[in-house]
């Protein structure tokens, strides 16, 4: 599977255009005009949303203009190059899935457990470290983060049911 750079540029322009349109729509609920006391609350966000929409449209036009000559080579034409191929896509997924799993686990079991499992997994499975080294590093990272956030900064992080069972609130 190969995704072209043109496809990704167009998809990015469409997504950012959608964000701009959403900002514009949300701004209209707060008023985008000029009232008796000055600009209404949605005035500035509406302008920013319009700029995002304009930039997205410009990117979309530029993308199709730039790659239009790829079918009819001439001066200034750019050949379509791959954005990502199958091998790189597999590496990207192998990197992204554990992070998404850590996020889900952290919501369910707490940040410290999710962090420890993520560190252990990436060191043991992805990097190929020994099990004992991976486990020791994961426990050390948990302990350091616990001391820094809970004791020094006094910022309680999400603990989850396992740490609560051991009386760590």
Question: What is the secondary structure topology, with strand pairs?
Answer:
Blueprint: E1 3-4, H1 5-28, E2 34-35, E3 38-39, H2 43-68, E4 82-84, H3 86-109, H4 111-126, H5 131-152, H6 160-165
List keywords for this structure.
4 strands, mainly alpha, 169 residues, two-stranded antiparallel ribbon, 2 domains, 70% helix
Explain this structure to me?
The protein is built from six helices and four strands. By secondary structure, the protein is mainly α. It folds into two domains: 3-84; 86-165, no CATH class. The chain has a two-stranded antiparallel ribbon with strand order 1-4. The radius of gyration is 24 Å and the shape is flat. It starts with a strand and ends with a helix. The relative contact order is 0.09. Keywords: Membrane, Transmembrane, Transmembrane helix.
